Batch of 2 targets.
Target 1
Amino acid sequence: PPSPFVAGLMAKVDSEQGFWHSPSNKEINGVVGTSRAIDFTLGDANCRANLLNENEVTTIIHQNGYRLWGNRTCSDDPKWAFLSVRRTADLINDSLLRAHLWAVDRNITKTYIDDVIESVNSYLAGLKAQGAIISGKCYATSDPANIASGKVFFDFEFTPPYPAEQITFRSHLLNNEIL
């Protein structure tokens, strides 16, 4: 089965390019064939590989070596349709939780809130500088009742880069340049 090879490819992409990059259209080392050939024609939206991709099925194609082909998750929400977007969100959420263990059980003051916001914004700025996100921002949304019960809410928003799943070149023949 290809699963270990796909996992290895994802680890390689994470290590060499970053977790925010899609593993699709990358050559899979070690794969020398598939049990069932999947029809693939570059530029043909109706070939079997692309039809399967439209239905959230990632395939392996043979095009300059064996390649993983597909970016999609099974999400019904178009914002979360791409694997690289989902993985980016998961990693950011997990990283923020782990990095802010220091903030749990501290006294809630304006300085505390500012420090957490600054820390998150600094992390998001670092991700932006690496190309992992296009933008990101953190802000506090707690009200006095939340704070009185020891609950502080920090919301953050970010924009990930989406993969170019389909590119189309449209040609236009001009004959008005002749004269």
Note: Helices lie at 3-16, 48-54, 83-99, 110-130, 144-148.
Target 2
Amino acid sequence: MGNYKSRPTQTCTDEWKKKVSESYVIIIERLEDDLQIKEKELAELRHIFGSEEAFSKVNLNYRTENGLSLLHLCCICGGNKSHIRTLMLKGLRPSRLTRNGFTALHLAVYKDSAELITSLLHSGADIQQVGYGGLTALHIAAITGHLEATDVLLQHGANVNVQDAVFFTPLHISAYYGHEQVTRLLLKFGADVNVSGEVGDRPLHLASAKGFFNIAKLLVEEGSKADVNAQDNEDHVPLHFCSRFGHHDIVKYLLQSDLEVQPHVVNIYGDTPLHLACYNGKFEVAKEIIQISGTESLTKENIFSETAFHSACTYGKSIDLVKFLLDQNIVNINHQGRDGHTGLHSACYHGHIRLVQFLLDNGADMNLVACDPSRSSGEKDEQTCLMWAYEKGHDAIVTLLKHYKRPQDELPYNEYSQPGGESRFLQSLDEDNMTKQPGNLRWMAPEVFTQCTRYTIKADVFSYALCLWELLTGEIPFAHLKPGYVSDPMSPMHFHSCRNSGSFEDSS
């Protein structure tokens, strides 16, 4: 699930839906595999089903390598309703499954043969029999989008709300695949638009995620209306999905029509639809949500301590989106989430150097610190955006931060400091982090030894030795020592020449 520095790109529901999608691909592959007949064998079968004499002499126990009986083969090799009746009268069972898990009815539906479907049903085939994946013939019709096959099955009493192994109804499947006419027909026969799938997903969730605008409208307006605020197991509403995937037309439809959609609702991760639009760089969707529904979502933080502004900085590839959010005058460029991290932290962590430059130029403070909220107060590890960039290996951003020319860099420091003296008279908002009096090394840069972290704010003339230490050794000064030990005037510290040893060592 990621860490406090970054929201995970995939949720549990995403992983499940990926598996569901893959499972339907496998189903189609297995159906296609059943249709693969060797050329020589196929020619012979076509001869059998094309000649009454040859058909009358056929071995009724004939099976292919995939376990297809003559009844299965009749549905894919040119058989007709007369052949179906004859084979079933001679004892061939329509319930027999191929090795891939399908009945003759499944194959007839997959081939969209209304004549054979009707003949199988009139001869006693079970319209509700399930095959591989818990699929009925109506599920197969919904997968393929075969309108005529769907109509025949429904006319013969197929259960319109039957669920497969992942609790998808035919309506779920037709909405997922974008089969508009099949969806319309299923609704005509009373399909329930609010049945939940395995993870609480309704057909409207699927149509919204896939961007099928006409199907979304059908589900909302046709017959029993879909619940536009229905939540899945992770509390996503349809608006979350169309916002995330950038389906602007569905977003606009849901928000503008008189549907009482809740635009600022959050999922279990605390994400509003605006969060998801920003995480995925959907500028037009973000603009639509704010213009129609207001700025309430801009102030909401998710469980990762991120507002929509943080989300846009995490995406980082749309400076226009970031600028638009800032222009609402609701978002402070230096707003810190509960863990202290800013939009600049997010941009640095994810390597968006152009956005980092933009944020710095517009007043982002690189010295604000974040800390892991899971740690106790005594274990705080305060980290600046430079440290986040360094952790992820974004060297160009590290260099930019180190050398970025801020307005205060132009101050005439020499007027406020004396050779060998201190910089206490420098006017600075960060004065508390500066050395206040002359002394030896243990008094320098308290921001280092108080939390054992890299100093990033200022170093006055007395901290120069520590700067030199870090530059020459590549180590953080005093990082291996506890604050009390460093500040103890009796501590047995001996500093060797960096030129000779390359480090400062504790003689103990």
Note: Confidence is low (pLDDT under 50) at residues 411-445, 447-455, 494-508.
